[in-house]
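Slide 14.
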Amino acid sequence: MNTPIAARDQWIGQIAKKTEMSPSEVEGLLKKYGIDPRLTHSVPKRLQILALNFEGTKTGDYETTEIDFSQENLSSGLHAFVSKRNLKGKTSLLKMIRWGLTGTRDLPKDMAGWFRSFTVRFSLDSDLYEVQLSDPENSVGRLVKFARQKEFVVAEFSDQKQFNESMDGFFLHELGLEPLEVIAEQQDGGVEQRHGWNWLFGALWIDPDPKAVFGGGDIQHGKPSG
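Slide 15: predicted structure.
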């Protein structure tokens, strides 16, 4: 549904004010790149992590250790991973949750072959889902939905690209979101870039290096640069 004229003019006016451009210049740029505001009726859903499980073998220069991690029945509220020492995997656990929800793996390279299986269970309101990786190293697995005491396959993936695309399509559809299409200006012209669920997920994620939320560059004096 197109935005009413009054709301559209207000939207353009706000852009013009922030960019220090005239409304006609803003109109021209929006028209050039085919951008038109639309009213959408958002339907909020609550995403909750319910369980995280993985097993495998930790390998290194000095030791080989079996891994068997299981955290079940996570309830509502605030949870924390704590340790008396650094480099014990607290950040890696958070990155594994993100891996399961987005299909994007951002773990240290030396952990590439550690895992034999990996699952993360979550709910969207009353609907229950689970990401199941039978071959985590190669991103082979599936997304299933639990209903009527059965498993229903929502998506299957056999590599990193399919895993990422499956989670992108699933969450955008379930949360009623749309990818953001932007044109990045370069010396030889504009390059179209798509920002989907993985990028939007960054708005929910607290990270020591928050480029997913603020864009590239360093953060100085409270403002993003670059």
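Speaker note: Residues 19 and 95 are 35 Å apart (CA to CA).
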